[in-house]
């Protein structure tokens, strides 16, 4: 059984914005899944939906199986327990949400006292251990947030997320707003923690390069849907879906000087989730759209071993042999002529 198995997850905000549409994801313990896509494509909404943190009135359907238990149908008492001990989130911009008037040690200890029913002495000891785990001296427990740098505060947020020994960490843009050196340190720290504790990790970013470097698998979202999913390096270096290709081409490659001079911008804006285009929602911006694309919204289908993409032009390449079909891909139409996409692929990079 997977640590996390998300099935057909759909989220519609009260105003009618379909922010997440029929997403399937799976994650095993010790594995790292990256979630990428332009601003507004639904990454944070998806993360919040996993732990039922969305505003009331939001319609959420599908299944979120955490160790086989559906978070979406749990009683609230159970959801609260799961939020700390099952899966915890390091939120986007979280380092600004520490309470300015409390010592950081007390803020880390709070969930340990509450959810672990620890004694004050036990919680203090655990807090010191957590701080050391994230590379801060235990004595920093006495500091107030303003006495720490941005990077140190983000370490505190990670310590807080680890407080009740979760099985899954969801990190939503954990390094945005940090400088490149600190960003690298925090990413290495997260990787180390995941490896040492056999956690599952979902890392959200619009930066494909960071995700390709950190994660095992990568899912690219567009307008609330996963449009491509597969081994992280392969998706980054050789994306199949035209949107994922455009996104990855927007990042210069280390060791490939040509890519620095050929940033592939994508014309147009992402669609309004309350008024999505018909058919494939990417068709108005797609450089290789066919006449039929405004009518047909393709499901994710096999695009090579362990790879899936949602584009009518995508199928396994002739040299890749039989594809490892995933359950979500089963039942899809057989892949269409792979040569068609080869011809239609943009020439760079
Ligand atoms: N509370 C809300 N009510 C209505 N619509 C919302 C709400 N929160 C987000 N949305 C809309 O849902 C869509 C997805 O937003 P979301 O924050 O999940 O995107 P994101 O991929 O995390 O973007 P970013 O990279 O900027 O963080 C956007 O169009 C956004 O405007
Ligand atoms: Mg977000």
Describe the overall structure.
With 349 residues, the protein is α/β, with parallel strands linked by helices. The strands form two sheets. Strands 6-7-8-3-9-10-12-11 form an eight-stranded mixed sheet, with helices on both faces. The protein has a four-stranded antiparallel sheet with strand order 2-1-4-5, with helices on one face. Strand 7, helix 6 and strand 8 form a beta-alpha-beta unit. It has helices at residues 43-50, 76-86, 104-115, 120-133, 150-162, 180-197, 208-214, 232-237, 242-249, 257-260, 338-344; strands at 4-12, 18-27, 32-36, 59-66, 69-70, 87-90, 168-172, 200-204, 217-222, 225-231, 301-302, 308-309. It folds into two domains: 4-102 and 149-220, 3-Layer(aba) Sandwich (Rossmann fold), CATH 3.40.50; 243-344, no CATH class. Bound molecules: adenosine-5'-triphosphate (ATP) and magnesium ion. Magnesium ion (MG) is lined by residues 43-44, 92, 172.
List the helices and strands and how they pair.
Elements: E1 4-12, E2 18-27, E3 32-36, H1 43-50, E4 59-66, E5 69-70, H2 76-86, E6 87-90, H3 104-115, H4 120-133, H5 150-162, E7 168-172, H6 180-197, E8 200-204, H7 208-214, E9 217-222, E10 225-231, H8 232-237, H9 242-249, H10 257-260, E11 301-302, E12 308-309, H11 338-344
Quick structural gist:
The protein has 349 residues and is α/β, with parallel strands linked by helices. The protein has 11 helices and 12 strands.
**CATH C-level name of the largest domain:** Alpha Beta
What is the CATH topology descriptor of the largest domain? Rossmann fold
Instruction: From the alpha carbons, calculate the radius of gyration and give it in angstroms.
Output: 21 Å
What series of H and E elements makes up the topology? EEEHEEHEHHHEHEHEEHHHEEH
CATH architecture of the largest domain: 3-Layer(aba) Sandwich
List each distinct ligand once.
adenosine-5'-triphosphate, magnesium ion
Question: Approximately how much helix is present in the residues?
Answer: 25-40%
Terminus-to-terminus distance: 39 Å
Pfam families: ABC_tran, oligo_HPY
Keywords: ATP-binding, Cell membrane, Membrane, Nucleotide-binding, Transport
Protein name: Dipeptide/oligopeptide/nickel ABC transporter ATP-binding protein
Subcellular location: Cell membrane
